[in-house]
Design a protein that fits this description.
Radius of gyration: 17 Å
CATH class: Mainly Beta
Strand order of the largest sheet: 1-13-10-15-4-3-2
Bound molecules: fe (ii) ion
Mean pLDDT: 93
Number of strands: 18
Order of helices and strands: HEHHEEHEEEEEEEEEEEEEEEH
Strand content: 25-35%
Oligomer: single chain
Largest sheet: 7 strands, antiparallel
CATH architecture: Sandwich
Number of domains: 1
Low-confidence stretches: none
Amino acid sequence: MRTFTNRNLIELTNKGYTKLRVLEDKEVSELISECESLHTTYNNDEWINRGVTYPSKGHAKKKSAILMISVDENKELPSTNDIGNVLRDYTSYNNDIISRVTGIKVPQSTRHMINFRQYLGKTEPVFEHFDGEYLKGFIDRKDYHFFDEALLPRFVSLLTLKGGGRCEGAVLVNVVSGEEVNTCVEVGEMVIFNNIKFKHQVPKLIEPRILLGMRTFDYLPYHYILEPKDGYVSLGDKINYGYVKPIGSGEATKLILNKTK
Ligand SMILES: [Fe+2]
């Protein structure tokens, strides 16, 4: 039984992150196979061209399966019949948490981008970054992650499916103060955090690790632009020194779909 207590709600609202145990061991292995099978089904040109599956960068020690899913029918996305039970429940649970925090119910057809990421051995660090749908001017270098325009989800969750126990994995970095928070998430635990208040990074890993990241780009995200404009406020970041404004889900969906045209 997955819970989200008032203490979690207060932590996520005030501190900007909270940690939860969400999966039993049996569900962990089921979820890994569900993600692998979903990727096998949808990792092809048709779905890549539709902007649903994201081409994965080949890397000997890192494998990523990135695609959009929804809990209930969304005609743009993979069939919900192909999404396994554990993944569907977990996505629905993420919807429930975000509904609690924002006070606005997340529709079950909302698109979530999942990133099923396998680190297969010793790997180099992933530099601090905001998760987002980068719409224009994206530059990704080893130590630099810049964009001209983006949709930034309010919240990102990271679930550990393999290799907890060494406090490796995602580290949150406070955008304004630079303070780092190592969440030390164990297998079966997730951390959900405010993606405007915190960037995140993955340190150099020693042991293999599997993480499942989840975020929604079209549920009340922030729109990021480079130049100041009415209604936008500074993001406060040194690298991405632009401005953000919360926007509605309809506007966000249009921006996503325009990108794929
Ligand atoms: Fe990330």
